Fold this sequence. Notes:
The protein has helices at 13-24, 67-74, 101-108, 114-124, 135-160, 198-206, 235-238, 320-334, 343-346, 353-372; strands at residues 5-9, 28-33, 44-46, 53-55, 62-64, 79-81, 86-90, 93-97, 190-194, 211-215, 228-231, 248-259, 267-270, 279-282, 296-306, 315-316, 339-341. By secondary structure, the protein is of the alpha/beta class. α1 (13-24) packs parallel to α6. The chain binds uridine-5'-diphosphate. Uridine-5'-diphosphate (UDP) binds next to α5.
Amino acid sequence: MTRKIVGIVGAGLSGAVIGRRLAEAGHRVILMEERSHVAGNCHTERDPRTGVLLHRYGPHIFHTGNEEVWRYLCLFAEMEPYRHRVIARAQGRIYGLPVNLLTINQFFGQTFTPSEARDFLDNRRRRDIVEPANFEQQALSMMGEDLYRGFFRGYTLKQWGRDPTELPASILKRLPMRFDYDDRYFTDKYQAIPKEGYTALVERILSHPAIELQVRRKFETSDQSFDHVVYSGPIDRYFCFQLGRLEYRTLDFETFYAKGDAQGAAVVNYCDLETPWTRITEHKHFAPWERDQHEGSVLSKEFSRRCEPSDIPYYPVRLVAEQAMLNRYVERADATPGVTFVGRLGTYRYIDMDVCIAEALRAASVLIGSFAAAKPPPAFIEKPS
Length: 385
Ligand code: UDP
């Protein structure tokens, strides 16, 4: 086997998992991370004032039904069971999300059984919308005007900075609607958070003699010192934005402190348009196994806005204009040998952590296979769509 020198750009989950697999297969990995820490946006750190494990770039809850992904993570971290629940403030009252029977009964001041609630909403939802073409139509056909206005319209306008009629229906499809009292945000078989946080997990994945980690290292596209590059940064940035900038949302956090338990839940969403933040996270609730050891509490108000060139991108916006631009970047990438694009930013898709890991495992196999067969690896393992 020829030992390749592979440059990996970005020490998030995608870069780390691919790097580890390549190193185990006998290749040498130079992992370049421009921030001062690994784990990308799932980075966690101890808050110096309270000792609480802080999700610095917003809430990250690992959930999956994928056995392979779960087993893989458990090789590197002790995963603590964690069941995510979300509280929503809407029209001056408190509810549970996703919309479930309790939410419906409280919102409409009713005592419906599941079938009564179904019948009730059937008369309120827009049954004429058969194939919802956008977020708003998806919401109206699923739940009707009142619930949509109560929980989704304001939050979505704040989160995406766009009218929900401009946004794809797929964003809302992330959330279920239930006619029982199940208020779990996710229903996957495995839901957990690494006991020591995501950064410790990624550090362990990267702890291999054939991986050289370089933090605060900016990658230049002109760098020719690698046999192959795996790029998990924004695809438009790789090409120096020559075809334009793809739109992303970025987040700002306003951190504040409290004593004890300030909000009683990890995440409270503020669904109205008047409150400028989208949600408040109380970090100690992400680690219930150690929560009571911390007297102080650290909280973050989360604000979403358009991502400017010097900001950290979080969410790909993926509107029609972006789609056309993305297609042109994909053509460029396909015509650029020596680099494979991976992850949320490399493929400009709104994917969860478990999907990132599953795709990274697949990408590593393809890369290892290509190297063994002396064939050039493809530009994408998962094509942006
Ligand atoms: N959403 C909303 N109100 C809420 C929660 C979610 O309108 O209280 C919408 C919003 O458009 C959001 C999408 O549903 O972007 C998906 O929510 P999810 O919780 O999956 O978002 P994430 O945690 O990835 O930001």
